[in-house]
Amino acid sequence: MKNLLPANGFLSVIAQWFSANILALGREMRLSYLPPLMVYVAAGISGLTGIVGTFYVKEKLGLSAEFLAMLGFWMMLPWALKMPLGHLVDLVWRWKGLLVYLGASLIMLSLLIMIGLLGHTEAMAAMASVETWFVISALLAPIGYVLQDVVADAMTVEAVPRVDENGQKLDPDKRKLMHVTMQTLGRVAIIGGGVLVSIANVFILRDAGALPEAEKEAVYLFVYELALIIPLVSIFGVVFASWLQRRDMKRFLAQGHSRQEAGKLLGLHSEPPSINWWILGGGLVFTVLSLGVGLSRISGGEEIVFVISMAIVIFLMWRLTGELEPDARNVLVGTAVMIFVFRAIPGPGAGSTWWMIDTLGFDQQFLAVLSLVGAVLTLFGMFIFRRFMAERSIAYIIGFLTIVGTFLSAPIIGMYFGLHEWTASVTGGVVDARFIVLIDTALESPLGQIAMIPMLAWIANSAPEKLKATFFAVMASFTNLALSASQLGTKYLNQLYEVKREVKDIASGQVTIPADYSELGHLLITVTIIGFVLPLMTILIVKRSRFRNA
Predict the structure, then answer these.
(1) How distant, in Å, are the alpha carbons of 33, 161, 171, 506 from that of 251?
(2) Nearest 10 degrees: CA dihedral of 334, 338, 344, 347?
(3) What helix, strand, coil percent values describe the chain, rounded to 5?
(4) CA-to-CA separations, 219 to 53, 226, 369, 383, in angstroms, rounded
(5) How far is CA 465 from the centre of its chain?
(6) What is the dihedral of CA 6, 11, 12, 16, to 10 degrees?
(7) What distance in Å separates the CA atoms of residue 436 and residue 95, rounded to the nearest whole number?
(8) Residue 24: what are its φ and ψ, rounded to 5°?
(9) Angle formed by the axes of helices 130-159 and 172-204, to 10°?
(10) Is residue 205 exposed (0-12), middle (13-18) or buried (19+ Cβ within 10 Å)?
């Protein structure tokens, strides 16, 4: 009996932790949280076409890794528009649902283009090249998701009620707790959506690599057709929000409140903020110049747009930080620099995935399994590392993630030089390439959220009280520009180390470009060195300067 007590005590601790960290979220769930969560779920399931898209590009399009990195830059730029769009949502608060409909329409158009390319290739090719259609589809989707994201952020504020069911004002501490719950559920919804699509991909793409070409294309087409549910989910969120609003209005009217009083209780007639022409003007300048440079196709267009974007965002940050005390301003600058450098680290690009497919034999289903493992462990990582994120400084977290990330990149580099062949030989084939990548993914997956959550908390906590929404949008634009910088760095590295996958002529099946992964090893090593040195150097420089970090 005595031997059972430690086990029972351990199980009790686990049960209490599970109840306090996971089940508590379910207990605190409210019906009003559902509309923004639906929009977030739509963002989470947007990855449904990711694996199919990778194989489609590799098998059907003659686009280089350098071009895809450049395309990734343009796909990231719409996220810098969160700055003016966030302010626009504040200005048209009552009509913000229309922006969700617009975003859903763009996402649907992007999916319909891919459905047309897979189901009616000849008809689409008669109007424009397949590559052109793909680029258009790739650029439409992020614009739609940005529109929905800025509205979802606004809806999370609206989802937390100001009064109870009887019209009595809620306690401020209770509302604060509800806001925390809402934001946590928002992250859970996004990642949970990723888990759902990973499970779907595991089953839909099983044995897809062994199918005849026509049947494989039919599977790809089904995935894109299934993805049409994404815009429908977000639209349902807006429709459900309208229904909840009408229901609450009827309840307050039945209690004897006038329509005007009921509207005030629901926050329907709150005065819009005054127009910040610096925000809208900066966003307009950014949009016009970006489109002008992009359409002109001048040399160095991505670099020009990046420099202009950075100048506009930094100028607006300078205007807004005038509201802060000098010490708070120094903390903001130091923290912003460290986060920017950490997020701006370049990656190896598409060549690494191509090599895993061609050389290591990873098929569609295995990549879906990797995605599922990553999504599930990311979800658990949010809860497991929540205390770690709350108690440590940004510098400590970035330093920790840099060292761990460098350590976890070693197995991939090792496999390029034959590590998996040696481990398989000494373990009877157990520790092969798939085993190594599966374990590596399991260890690395939670790290992304460890960096993301404290960054969002820092942005929210640093904002001046009267300018929280605008400040959040500007700082989010700044950190999103770091991802554009990462894509530029990836493009430069793919120019320095050229990686080619095999390209076949669609009509004849003849190989037009042979595969060449001879420089991939140097690319992986260079990316790892940059990813280790730059963040740590930045931390040391900030620590020795007058700037500090949160």
Answers:
(1) 19, 14, 21, 63
(2) 170
(3) 80, 0, 20
(4) 12, 11, 17, 36
(5) 27
(6) 140
(7) 50
(8) -60, -35
(9) 150
(10) buried
Rounded distance between C-alpha atoms, residue 57 and residue 62, angstroms:
8
- Of the candidates 287, 296, 328, 332, the one whose C-alpha atom is nearest the C-alpha of residue 314 is 332
Encoded tokens for 539? 């931390």
Alpha carbon distance 67, 544 (integer Å): 39
For residue 109, give both structure tokens: 């158009």
Output the pLDDT for position 1. Answer: 45
Are the C-beta atoms of 202 and 372 separated by less than 8 Å? yes
431 DSSP 8-state letter: S
Tokens, residue 506 = 């669609």
pLDDT < 50 positions in the chain = 1-2, 4-5
Q: Is 159 exposed, middle or buried (0-12, 13-18, 19+ CB in 10 A)?
A: buried
For the chain, the distance separating the N- and C-terminal CA atoms, rounded to the nearest angstrom, is: 50
Q: Give CA torsion, residues 393, 398, 403, 405, to 10 deg.
A: 140
Q: Provide φ and ψ at 334, rounded to 5°.
A: -60, -45
**Angstrom distance (rounded) from CA 499 to CA 358:** 13
Q: How many angstroms separate the CA atoms of 346 and 337, rounded?
A: 16
- Classify residue 504 by its DSSP letter: E
Can you give the pLDDT at residue 523? 93
